[in-house]
Amino acid sequence: QVRLVESGGGLVQAGGSLRLSCAASGSFFSINTMGWYRQAPGKQRELVATFTSGGSTNYVDSVKGRFTISRDNPKTTMYLQMNSLKPEDTAVYYCYANVVRYSRTTSDYWGQGTQVTVSS
C-alpha cells in the first residue's frame, strides 16, 4: 500500500509564502509523475503543477512565476514553494503520485489534502 502525506498548509496574508510537502511511503518500485492539485469551495479540482521523474515541470498559468515545484533526490518527496500568495489561491491542496509497483503496473494515489487559506 502506498501512502501520501501532505504537510505545510495554513493561514497566510496575501503576499506571503507557504511551502507544502508531500512524502510518499510504502512498498513500490518507483514514482513517475508527482503533482499538486487544488480545489476551492464550489469549484472543480484543478491541476497546479507537476514534476515528472525525468525532471520536467508544468504549471497552471495562474501560478507561473509564483509557485515552484520540486522533488528530492530519491524522488519520493515533493514540495511546492508558494510565494506572492493571493486570496484566489485559497483551496485544499492535494498531492498526487503515479506509482510504479514492483510488478511494473502503475496506479494513481492521492493525499488527504491540506488547507491553504490566504487572507486579503
Q: Secondary-structure map with pairings?
A:
Blueprint: E1 2-7, E2 10-13, E3 18-26, E4 30-39, E5 46-51, E6 57-59, E7 67-71, E8 77-82, E9 91-100, E10 106-110, E11 114-119
Parallel strand pairs: 2-11
Antiparallel strand pairs: 1-3, 3-8, 4-5, 4-9, 5-6, 7-8, 9-10, 9-11
Descriptive report:
The chain has about 120 residues and is mainly beta. It has strands at about 1-5, 10-15, 20-25, 30-40, 45-50, 55-60, 65-70, 75-80, 90-100, 105-110, 115-120. Strands 2, 4, 5, 6, 9, 10 and 11 form a seven-stranded mixed beta sheet that branches. Strands 1-3-8-7 form a four-stranded antiparallel beta sheet, with no helix packed on it. It is elongated and about 50 Å long. The termini are far apart.
Question: Could you name the key traits of this structure?
Answer:
single chain; 120 residues; mainly beta; seven-stranded mixed beta sheet; four-stranded antiparallel beta sheet; elongated
How many runs of DSSP E, i.e. beta strands? Answer: 11
Mean pLDDT: 96
Helix proportion of residues, in percent? under 10%
Residue fraction in strands: over 45%
Poorly predicted regions are none
What is the terminal-to-terminal distance? 40 Å
Structural class: mainly beta
Largest sheet: 7 strands, mixed
- Topology as H/E string? EEEEEEEEEEE
- Radius of gyration equals 14 Å
Number of helices: 0
